[in-house]
Amino acid sequence: MPGYERAELTAELKVLPSGEDEARAQIEAARTAAGETGLAREAGPETMILAGGRKEVLAAATRVVEAALDAGARGAEVVVEAEAEAGRFDQA
């Protein structure tokens, strides 16, 4: 089972580019920031999934959103979910 499925918290982030011409740079800035977090992640066209401990995921999500906004994105959508059974993995 992939690590992001066992994580305490997951955050799905979608970059909302400010325009077609700038979209690539804005999304790449967010992907770079996501990659630098070291957390498990997936990437779609404008979407990243970060997973891990609560504090780490929340801090990483903030860095990814800041990177996208700093690159000129008009916004970001963030969905954060706590894993219901995450505590069980601490006992393994």
Automatic annotation (TrEMBL):
InterPro entries: MTH1187/YkoF-like. This is Thiamine-binding protein domain-containing protein. It comes from Rubrobacter tropicus.
